[in-house]
User: What shape does this take?
Amino acid sequence: MTTPPTGGGRAVLLLRLAGPLQSWGDRSAFNRRETRPEPTKSGVIGLLAAAQGRAREDDITDLLQVRLGVRVDQPGTLLRDFHTVSDYRGRPLLQAGVSAKGVQKPTSPAKNTHVTQRFYLQDAVFLVAVEGPEALVTALHDAVRNPAFPLALGRRSCVPTQPLALKPHTGDLDTALRETPWQASEHARSLHCRRTGTRPARIDLAATVDDPDGNDVLADVPQSFDPRRRAFTNRTVRHTWLSVPTDIPNPDPPDDTDAGHDPFVLLGW
Amino acid sequence: MTVDRRAYLDVHVIQTVPPANLNRDDQGNPKEAYFGGVRRARVSSQAWKRATRTELASHVPELERGTRTKRIAAELASRLGRTGVDGEQAQRLASFLLAPLGIKAGKKAGDTAYLLFYGHRQLEDVVDLVAHRAPELAALDDDALTTAVKDLAVVDKLKTGHPMEVALFGRMVADIASLNVDASVQVAHALSTHPVELEFDYYTAVDDQNLADETGAGMIGDIGFNSATLYRYATVGLHQLHANLTDTDAALTAAAAFVRDFARSMPTGYQNAFAHRTLPSMVAVMVRTEQPVNLVSAFEEPVTVTDGIAAASAVRLAEEYQRITNAWGGAPVHTAVCHTFDEKSPAAGRIREILGAASPFPQLTEGLAGPLAAAMGWDRTA
Assistant: This one.
């Protein structure tokens, strides 16, 4: 299982993030906890740090050197979860705000039930590629397969399904994302075949990769998970489409007549 | 956290719930989710955790349980009674003992500013620290008392041994991060193993006193409900539980208590309207030393049989377990199963083949301590 680190090469850790529910928040706090449509860098680094058994206060600078790529294999849909909080003894809840002394005050007039909205992605599958020094990737792969804390897809109740860690890739990030077969569920595959009336050998999937020359900025790079010093910085990313093998058995022969751009494919028409 | 040995205790439950509305959204309807492309019944993890915790509280001895109290100082003062100081003296001594904790005082005398979730046992430990010389301490003046209690391990007592509920479900104190406790339990949202449609119970309520004059209903309304066979999953990180409780026997007791109460508890939403309290059709527990494994993928393709959904779901679960173990290795070091299917039925046969012979539930929970202790490399005193 463990391959000994071999010098200063680069390698790519591949994670298949799938489960009934996932939630990748980036800026929401308090009552309304939203989710991004794709896993965030802070979420993935948090998962890896948890696998290694790091405490929230521990240094994570070595994990920040990795390059992240996220491929959307099955986008899923948005789920809004209505969640109430109350004190089981029937006492009033505390305010979100604090007094001058930094102490939470009880609500006035007394409020007994607190409503929060939590958003999840349901029925989604992502392929996440983490490119870094080979020794680090090997250590992370071992950690994910023997995690110190139970791992979660963005929120503790979002338990991942297996397999979580795929075989590490020895090439670069973009090749890994392009060559790893489509990870969607059996249901999503058959639905795709039925809707398009084809058995395609390849499928176009959306991906977001760390790229200094990219054209979009995401503010989800954690500086520390210490609850007293939480801070995030930006990363520049490139959004792209990748042609990926589907691994569907007995695929149609490649269609040479339709080489042009077909925008309706995106709509599933 | 430095951990040498790790053990996860996975709990898988297949449970059939009759028409019910266990956990509702802001429309008043049962919660749902899409999985494998079909609509499923869902019960949120927070709802079932609360039910588990309430169940735990109902029969774990008070000393083990801990109470979430704003009145830690008053609680401590009353316990100091057994050392021979009482009244104002005890209150004064209690507040001095808690001073090194740095918890800000609340508005009312004796209250702290937070809901603190300490164990009764921890408070007793603090009392033990001063038990042999409490009257002597109480007689000291403020400066001398501050000096005298400074070297007592009050903070350590309160920080190390966490009561069972805190050790399992965690604690967060927003502005004293050092008092936070990471939960050792992870609970997934319960999902139905099969497609579920939301249904409505339209009801009319008649006015019992209105015998002749009007024939209409007193009120009308509707309640959303569904019935489902649920897959419920939770895992306990034994190493984390031990780190929270600092005691191997307490960790083993808490793990067994969690399994029992997670399996037997039921959220109480609309309980009087539906009387939905059922017990699981199957509980399977697995002790793993590599990683916890959620088997919900067994139901990504929904179960579609029209009779015996629970048995079909249980067989699916066992077969998914077998497939995952064959493909990825890492078989559990201990597996035990309890189910209510007829021992002669094909489902029971298949489960026996894969997961081993079924045992009664009390035996299943009692049988956990040995394998868990072995996985963690603990010597058991009991």
In short: The first helix of chain A runs from residue 41 to 51. Chain A touches chain B through 50 residues (CB under 8 Å). The beta strands of chain A are 10-22, 32-33, 67-74, 77-86, 94-98, 104-106, 113-133, 202-210, 216-224, 231-245. The mean pLDDT of chain A is 88.
